[in-house]
Write a structure and sequence with these properties.
This protein is mainly alpha-helical. The chain contains 8 helices and 2 strands, in the order H-H-H-H-E-E-H-H-H-H.
Length: 188
């Protein structure tokens, strides 16, 4: 399976040949950065890696007095890799450890009141994110392609789940009588 950034870049190039600057400009849009933050340096590195794997091929073009630019197109090998990676991505679910998950794993190492305060701050940030995500979705619903609309909805639903989980965590942290527990205690 390809990296997430490789999937994004190959998917864009699949639609039509693009140069690295065009790809970077698309990826710098707030709608993309809110969902998948990345740097222009990582995009250029990904393009070089995809080219070295022969997933894309570049053609240098010069237009009048403008500087030369390299337009990249998807190769057959790149198309096959992209399709395979997208199919795997759509049909599978992979649990990934997050900083939040690791912090939850060790939450009882913190003072309970401090942990609850931090969870409340998280909840407020999530509610703000949800407001902004809803606004983006409702403002652009009729103007954007279905795939991007689905991405915006996916983001809203993920935030809603995070809000629900955080609210439940706050309630449990407030009511649990065994705060000082540790996973290490399972060792005996």
């Amino acid at each position: 399976m390809l990296s997430k950034l490789s999937n994004l870049v190959l998917g864009l190039i699949w639609k039509r040949p693009l140069n690295p600057y065009e790809i970077t400009k698309l990826m710098e849009r707030s709608e993309i950065q809110d969902w998948f933050p990345m740097t222009s340096a990582s995009i250029y590195t990904t393009i070089r890696n995809l080219s070295s794997k022969e997933y894309i091929v570049g053609e240098t073009i010069s237009e009048g007095n403008l500087p030369h630019k390299t337009m990249y197109s998807l190769t057959k090998k790149g198309e096959e890799a992209l399709i395979n990676s997208l199919e795997i991505g759509l049909e599978t679910y992979k649990t990934e450890a997050s900083n939040f998950g690791i912090s939850l794993f060790h939450i009882c190492s913190l003072n309970r009141d401090n942990a609850i305060d931090l969870l409340r701050k998280r909840l407020n940030k999530l509610k703000d994110m949800k407001f902004k995500a809803d606004k983006k979705l409702n403002t652009n619903t009729n103007k954007i392609p279905i795939n991007f609309r689905m991405m915006l909805k996916y983001n809203v639903y993920r935030i809603e789940i995070e809000i629900k989980i955080t609210e439940e965590l706050i309630a449990e942290a407030q009511n649990d009588s065994n705060w000082d527990s540790s996973f290490v205690k399972l060792l005996g």
